[in-house]
Amino acid sequence: MTFSPAAADTLITFFRDTETTAEDYDIIFTGDLGSVGTDLLYELMSREDYDIRCRHSDCGMMIYDLEKQDVHAGGSGCGCSASVLATYVLPRLISGEYENILFLSTGALMSPSSILQGQNILGIAPVINIRSKNKKGEQMK
Fold first, then answer.
1. Which of 27, 43, 112, 121 has the smallest count of CB within 10 Å of its CB?
2. Count of alpha carbons within 13 Å of 82, Cβ hemisphere only?
3. CA dist 140 to 11, 29, 79, 117, 129, Å?
4. Under a CB-based contact definition with an 8 Å cutoff, are residues 44 and 117 in contact?
5. Using only C-alpha atoms, what is the Rg of the chain?
6. Could you report the per-residue pLDDT of 17-36, keeping only the tens digit for each?
């Protein structure tokens, strides 16, 4: 299961609503799409004339070494997101390396009722825009 369609839909909607593009952000993170899911995300975004390759990093791909580890489809999107946010992203926001990022914690909306009824598991990709203070110490708008 890939959550790339949910991530693409969320990003496209966010960009349209905020009248921004990938270039307006230091970096855009997704939870754990893996290499296959990342390629699919890029394809889906390009169909709508958005190119995020210049700004995108996938948390799962940052954690795992595909050549040395047999991770198949990767790990938990929420687990990879939390790990990368706490150990990689927040220190860079505090240091000022990043000032404006988008963070999508891609994953599944698991509902016991839906599963018992044989319904599909929904892919979700909630997005948050995290901004730090700029280099002058002023809060960004």
1. 112
2. 6
3. 21, 20, 29, 47, 12
4. no
5. 16
6. 999 999 999 999 998 888 88
Across-strand partners of 103? 29, 128
Provide the β-strand partners of residue 140: none
5-17 confidence digits (pLDDT tens) = 999 999 999 999 9
Phi, psi of 118 (to 5 degrees): 75, 20
Instruction: Find, among 26, 55, 49, the residue nearest to 134 by Cα.
Output: 26
Q: Which backbone phi and psi does 20 adopt, to 5 degrees? A: -125, 175
The two three-digit tokens of residue 54, written as one number:
């210049």
| The one-letter amino acid at 24 | D
CA 122 to chain CA centroid, Å, is 16
Output b/e per residue, 107-124; b: 16+ Cβ within 10 A: beeeeeeeeeeeeeeebb
**Rounded to whole angstroms, how far apart are CA atoms 69 and 35?**
14
- Determine contact, residues 35/109, Cβ cutoff 8 Å: no
Report the alpha-carbon distance of residue 65 to residue 70 in Å, rounded.
9
Give the tens place of pLDDT for each residue, 93-124: 989 999 999 999 887 777 777 777 887 777 88
